[in-house]
Structure formats: C-alpha cells, structure tokens
Design a protein that fits this description.
about 500 residues, 18 helices, LRR_dom_sf
Length: about 500
Amino acid sequence: MHDCLNVDEIVRLLVSGLVACGWKETAVALACCCKKFEDPVLGVLWKEQKRLDVLLATLPEGVWDERHHDFVFKTMPTGAEWARFTKYCRRMRELELEQPKELIPSNVLSVLQLRTLNEPLLPNLKSLELNKSTADIVPFIPLFLSHMTTNIEIGFADGSSAVMVASMMINLPKLCPHVQSISLSPLPRDPAITNATSEILLNCNLDALRFFHVDSSLTEEARKVVFQLPNLSGLWTVFTEPIPPPEVSLPNLTSLDIEYHHDHAWLEGFHGTTFSKLTEVTFHAEPHEVGAFLEAFEHFALATSASAVLSHFRFHTSLAWSPSYYSLLGFKQLIELVVEFSCDDGCSSWLDDEILITLAQAMPQLEILQLGKAPCQVPSNVTVHGLIALAHHCLKLTKLCVHFQTDSIILALSNQTVPSAQETHLPREDCALTSLQVGAIPMPQHHTFSVFLVLLRIFPRLLNIEYVDEGWKWVDATIKLTGQIDTFVHRSISTLSSTLEVEAAEGTL
C-alpha cells in the first residue's frame, strides 16, 4: 500500500484529533468496536494519564484493595498479571503526585520495587512531579525515574532527613542522563545536601540542562560551572556564605532566583553581562540588614541588557526595610513588581502618594503591584489620590497590595472632593483591578459604606478584598455580591444580543 494511504497513520491521526477535541468517549467507543483503534486509543489516553492510583487499578481486583483512598495489596501479582500491568506502565509519560503518602502507602511501593527487580517501573516516563515527599516516599523516588525522564520536580515535606534526601539526589544524573529540568525544594541546610546538589550539576549533561531550580548552596567548583552554562534558561540557587563576585555568562537565561544570607556583593559579578532574554528575577534576602539592594540592582541592570527586557521583579525579606523605590523607575516594562518586607516590629513602609504616582506613571503595564507585606495598622501616607492615579495610569492592574489610608477616602467623600472623570484623574477606562489586599488597615466604624462606594468607583471591577480587620468583612461581601450581579447582567445582555443577531440574520426578528 502507498505510504500516503497508510492505515495505521490515518488511525493515529484520527484518534489524536478526537482526543484533542475532547471526544475521548468517542475514541474509546471506536476502540471497543474496532481492534484497529485499540492500541492507538490506549496510547493517546495513557499519554495524558498522570495518576499512579489509576495505573494500579489496572491490576485485577483480587490483587489489591482500596481502603480510605489508600491502596493495599491483598496478594502478590502473578507473572501474567504483572506482565499485563507493565504494558500499561510503558505507556505512561507523566506522573504527578500531590500527596504521595496519602495516596500510595510505602508498603505498596515496596511491592512494586520488589517486582521491578531494580528496573524502572515507568520506562518511558518523561516528567515526574512529586509534592510533599516524606521520609516514607523518598527512598522510592528512583523507582519512577528512567533514561527517558527529562523533567524532575520534587517537593519535600518539612523535616526531611538530609542524608536520606542527599543519597537519593546524588543518583539523579545516572538514572536520568538526558534530564533537562531539575526542581528540588525545600531542602535542608546541610553540607550533605550542598555536596549532593553540586554532584548533580557536575555530572549532568550540561548541554541539555535548561532549568536548574534547586534550593541549596553549591560548592565553589559547581558554582563556577552553573554561571557558565550557555543553554541554561532558569536558575535558582542559594548563597549561604559570603562569596566573591562570580564570572557570569548566561546568554539564554530567562528567569533568575537567588536566595542570599549575607551582603549582596555577588551582584558585581553580573555587571556588564549580556542578559537579552532575562524577563524574571526573584530575590530572597535574609542578611543582617538589606541595605541599598535596589540601588545596587539598578546599577547592575543598567550595565546589562536586563533593564530593557525585565518584566517581573520580586524581592522578599523577613526583615523590616525602607526601600528606595525610585531606583526601579527605569524598568518601565514591568508587569509584576513585588517588594515584600516585614512590619512585625513596627511599620517600615515609607510609601506615599508621590512615590506611588511616580511608579504608576513610569510602569503603565503593571498587572501585579505589592509594596510591603500585608498592610498593618499603622497609618500610611498613601491617600485616595494615590489610588486614583494608580487606576488612571495602570489600566491592566489586577492585584494590589499597598498601605493606604481609609480616613482619606471618608474625608474625600464627605467633602465631595473625589475627582470626577472629566478632571482626567479617574481612569478614562476601567482599571482591571479585581483583588485588593488591605490586611490590617483599620476600617473606621460607621464608614464602611462610604469606603465601599469610593473603592468601587475607583476600581469598578473589584471582586475580592483580602483583610484581617473584621471591619472590612461587609465591604468584601458587598463587593462580591455586586460582582456577581454585574456578571449576571453582562451575560444576560450578551445572550440577548447574540439571540437578536441570529434572529436578525434569519429574518425572524
């Protein structure tokens, strides 16, 4: 038969199209009716199957039992039962376990490990994602990995044994020689973890490695390597000790995440580096004091190409800090700006209308803005005028967290000084803001309705308020109700308009 009429190829394309369109039941029905469709349908469906419990359920019911959502083996699978089971194992391409211990007890994994005879359980698995892996699960992680695995993402439960985790980690390059993406967190702060992380990096195929997101420091040798990977797109690393500025050459880097526990002298190593693709940076700072980090970052970014392409900037510290936001004004294309610091020992936010308005004017593309942690009870210098300017300049803003005054809102309404749209202070278009975090900002009694009216006038699409002060409870509930009514009205109008258009086209109107 001519290649262009190859029946197997036509069947595979047909099955792939049915599943892609969401017609899985139709594909299964075809497989039940025609033997020719059985293998292609199974192949496509199992490529989308990511759950281990579903795989275990392919064993005969006499072999296993499900108790309180846990699997228990009643008998050992026979040779024939195991052979049938492994056929399905070979079809799996991705595995995701949100709560491994709750879904699959370790005694079940012990049986699987015993029957595989040190061979991969899922020989064609490309992606493994485990969340909250406990000490019971960690020794069995290699069971799921194979030479075909290119993506490894493992989250560990708090209190994981450093030695146990390190002994598992150190074998990853051997088990997965073609790995492209590695994500391991949170990891214990331990020399064994540092050495294991470094061994992973030094023994990987560095030309294939694209993402190295590992919550651990590195040895000096590994640190020199990680900052010289021309194909690396994403990097997360930790500096637990003071380090000299590294020599950096990461031309394809798109995201950078660094946690540091001392000064930020390492930033000098990035000075003059080409970062034409760097769009996202995240910093976690736990030094004795943060100091002038934003100024140092501005100096580094202006000396590279990062300032022209950076769209996401996040900085997190558990310390009190009063940052100089003016250092960020050069990043005009930012979509997300998060600068998080603590107010636990007294508010350190020096934000006022002038700073907020200047930032809004400089960054019109902002969609997420957070300056400080959840707002505290200390009065702020941001008034209703700062919020109005933000809504006017940042029409795409969807999430906001800043310290602001409710008193200024009440005063503006009582004095009828809330600017009108004609004064061009209110946005000409509706600001897209849907989520506002107010934290512990005090809500004066008997003024909740006034605050509700003004906020909804400034942010007409507001749907959710995150609060600690109970005074905001009524405002949040009323805004949610208003949003539901608006959604219902818009849908009703849209449906009516569509109906009228159809009737007009058919001449029945």
